[in-house]
Amino acid sequence: MATFVAACAPTRPTGDDLGIAARNLAAARAAGAETYAPLELRAAEDHLAQANAASAQQDYDRMTMLAAESAVDSELAAAKSRLGKAREAVESLKQQNADLSRDAARHAEGASLE
Amino acid sequence: MTARSIVLAVLALMSLAAPAAARDLDYERLSDSLERLAVDPRLGTLAPMQMDRARAALQALKDARRSDRPYLLYIAERRVDIARVSAEAELAESERMALQRENDRLQLEAARRDAEQARRELERQRLLAQIRAEEAERLAREAEAARAQGEQASQAAEAARAEAAQAKRLAEAQARAAALAKKEAELAGSIAAGEQAKAPAAKRSMTLGESAFARGKSALTAAGKARIAGIVDFVNAAPGARVRIEASAGGDSQLATARAEAVRDALVAAGVAADRIAAATARKGKGSQVEIRLEGAN
Question: Which of A65, A69, A83 sits opposite B92 (nearest CB)?
């Protein structure tokens, strides 16, 4: 009977879905998701928490889906963070280059007047 | 087949078709979104791996069982978003790199400019230093020259002082000489004045006393004759002058005239021109003397 019960218990997935989701979440935080993608980061955290809860309840199918959702949330958060940082860098460089170009033009103008 | 059975069959088909149409709408929406991304001229070629994963997610959604659909729809939506955001991030990154290259170029240009400016400033400072050094050297030369000139001036001043002292001594000597000369002149003047005062009396007239004649006579005595030579010298000393001879003989005008004429004759005999003798006459007076007086030019 005990053997029968054990054979009918939910089988834990062999993949490391929770681990992947946790690493993606850490990567998203490291990428600056708290600043650039707070909503996606929150979704990733919630989904991971729910996945852990499902795992605790041995609801592995649900755990797998929630972990996968958390993982893509974190991927999106990280991508948005990269985009936000790149755009900030672009704006900063545009400003710097405009200043440098202005200095160069002023210098050229000054040199032509000398 | 009754009409009722046909209606039921149609409704059954519609009930089956309705979820399929809803599935298709989500899939098509996401598929269109991904397709637009794929054909975007700027983003289409970017993030190819995420594009592939989005397509796979869409395919999974398309193939999903009804129970898995919400989960797979969520995953597909996220995957399409990730593909789009990743492509935009790559584009922004590419733009950032281009701007960074431009920034590097501008920074290099500015650095070269600054270096050139620094080089010019250095050259300017070097020239200024050279000018200052030359100026300092010039000032030093001038100071040296001034010092030498000062020495010369000092020597010249010393010489001038010596010369001035000498001149002063000379001037004092000259002053003394002048004073002496003045004194001498004054003395000479006074002597000349004295002589001049005396000369007319001595030179303008001479007198023969009573002893020159014999008592009551007009003839000259030996003493009188002896005086005649002196009177001749006196008269000849003033050759242009006329000679007036006036005699008095104690009121005896005749005797007096005779004595005047006797003197005239003696003078003429001694060489005095007779025409120089203006008169030989008596004059009134108690005395007894003959005065021989010169008149006119000396």
Answer: A83
Neighbours of B289 (CB within 10 A): 19
CA distance A103 to A107: 6
Distance CA B210, CA B221 (A): 10
Report chain A residues whose CB lies below 8 A from the CB of B87. Answer: none
Judging contacts by C-beta atoms under 8 Å, the chain A residues touching residue B100 are 89, 93
Q: Phi/psi zone of residue A32: left (φ > 0), alpha (ψ -120 to 50 degrees), beta?
A: left
Which of B81, B103, B110 lies closest to A93 in CB terms? Answer: B103
Residue in the structure block whose two tokens are 């996945």:
A51
**Partner-chain contact B85 A79, CB within 8 Å:** yes
Lowest model confidence (mean pLDDT) among A67-71, B150-154, B226-230: B150-154
∠ at Cα B237 (B233, B242), nearest 5°? 100
Average pLDDT over residues A47-51: 97
Compute the nearest-CA separation of A45 from chain B (Å).
15
Q: What span, in angstroms and rounded, lies between the C-alpha atoms of B248 and B258?
A: 10
> How many Å apart are CA B88 and CA B101, to the nearest integer?
20
* pLDDT single digits (tens) B225-252: 888 888 888 888 888 888 999 999 888 8
- Bridge partners for B245 per DSSP: B280, B292
Each domain of chain B, given as residue ranges in start order, spans 3-105, 209-295
Q: What is the rounded CA–CA span in Å between residue B234 and residue B206? A: 8
Hey, where are the domains in chain A? 14-113
**From the CB of residue B91, how many other CB atoms can be counted at a distance below 10 Å?**
20
| Cα gap B144→A100, rounded to integer Å | 55
Which pair of structure tokens corresponds to residue B233?
Answer: 């010298």
Q: pLDDT by residue (tens digit) across B76-125? A: 999 999 999 999 999 999 999 999 999 999 999 889 988 988 998 999 99
Provide ipTM, 2 decimals: 0.88
* Topology of domain B209-295, CATH: 60s Ribosomal Protein L30; Chain: A; (3.30.1330)
**What confidence tens digit (pLDDT) does each residue in B12-24 have?**
444 444 454 554 7
- A61, A96, A99, best to mutate vs chain B, most B CBs in 10 Å: A96
